[in-house]
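quick q for whoever's on today - can somebody do inverse folding on this one?? i tried earlier but teh output was garbage lol. tokens:
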């Protein structure tokens, strides 16, 4: 009888330790996610906007306001992560964590089921994943939080007073950093991220060997289904043939082997490279302006931007690069 009780106590202890380890690991995940969003809140805004408008079906006037409010998520996640690691008020923090993770799971499952291809911005610029990958991760993390919730214990704890001071201090730091990083960049939310003087951030280009952060390029943002974009192809072909003009690269949210791109290439014969960027990146680069747009980019820095009705002529582009060289 005594050995059986000892075995049960050992097993119970192991379950409590496993639950507490799960709690700590998810706390670290929240810490990293909150820190990443706090450090680059503008990128998180653009990544949250498609989910807010596309999944929650909020209108164009309400969606941006909700996305701005979502920036507080970085502060909440950071504070919640500290609380979980410190095991501060676990009765409440674990419930909040479960509710938050369940909401994240709802968003990613909805996006995945609808074929939504916007990337998940849970970790800011640190880690880019699609809705499918994020759904699997969120399911695992929700299960870990539920284990921690139903098997709460007092292992690996921090004294109440110290834990409270750490959590409170962390919340203040996260709020200060997020505010300091966000408010100076508010203009980017109105005019988009393709502005002279800005550095392209977190732009992943696929379907080509072009490294947008190394060297000089004339970058065009286009859609293969856009009438005005099609009309610009002969003009872009002429620009790409001018000696001394940087390589022309056209970026769209369509996969380079998609039917739309193949038809575009077959019909119009563009003599420049075509590559893919994410729907989120495309939206933030054309926001407020439409497309096509063109920019001169050198080592990731935007040095000039031309709108649809302002594309330079052959002589203007030659003069521009002669004066800038």
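ok took a stab at it. sequence:
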């Amino acid at each position: 009888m005594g050995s059986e009780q000892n075995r049960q106590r050992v097993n119970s202890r192991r379950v409590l330790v496993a639950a507490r380890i799960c709690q700590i690991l998810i706390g670290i995940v929240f810490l990293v996610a909150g820190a990443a969003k706090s450090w680059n809140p503008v990128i998180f805004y653009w990544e949250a906007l498609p989910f807010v408008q596309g999944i929650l079906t909020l209108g164009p006037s309400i969606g941006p306001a909700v996305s701005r409010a979502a920036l507080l998520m970085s502060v909440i996640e950071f504070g919640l992560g500290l609380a979980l690691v410190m095991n501060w008020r676990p009765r409440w923090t674990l419930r909040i964590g479960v509710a938050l993770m369940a909401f994240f799971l709802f968003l990613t499952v909805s996006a995945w089921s609808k074929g939504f291809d916007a990337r998940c911005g849970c970790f800011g610029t640190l880690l880019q994943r699609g809705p499918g990958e994020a759904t699997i991760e969120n399911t695992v993390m929700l299960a870990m939080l539920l284990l921690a919730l139903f098997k709460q214990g007092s292992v690996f704890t921090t004294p109440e007073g110290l834990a409270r001071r750490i959590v409170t201090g962390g919340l203040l730091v996260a709020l200060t950093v997020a505010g300091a990083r966000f408010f100076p960049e508010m203009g980017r939310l109105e005019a988009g991220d393709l502005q002279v003087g800005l550095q392209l951030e977190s732009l992943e280009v696929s379907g080509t060997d072009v490294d947008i952060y190394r060297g000089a390029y004339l970058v065009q943002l286009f859609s293969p289904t856009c009438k005005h974009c099609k009309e610009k192809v002969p003009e872009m072909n002429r620009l790409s043939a001018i000696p001394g003009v940087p390589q022309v690269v056209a970026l769209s949210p369509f996969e380079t082997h998609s039917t739309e791109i193949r038809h575009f290439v077959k019909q119009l014969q563009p003599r420049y490279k075509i590559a893919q960027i994410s729907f989120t990146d495309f939206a933030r680069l054309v926001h407020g302006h439409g497309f096509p747009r063109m920019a001169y980019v050198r080592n990731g820095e935007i040095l000039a931007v031309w709108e649809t009705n302002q594309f330079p002529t052959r002589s203007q582009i030659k003069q521009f690069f002669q004066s800038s060289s």
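fwiw The domain at 216-324 is CATH 3.40.30.10 (Glutaredoxin). also Strands lie at 216-221, 247-252, 273-276, 293-298, 301-306. so keep that in mind when u check it
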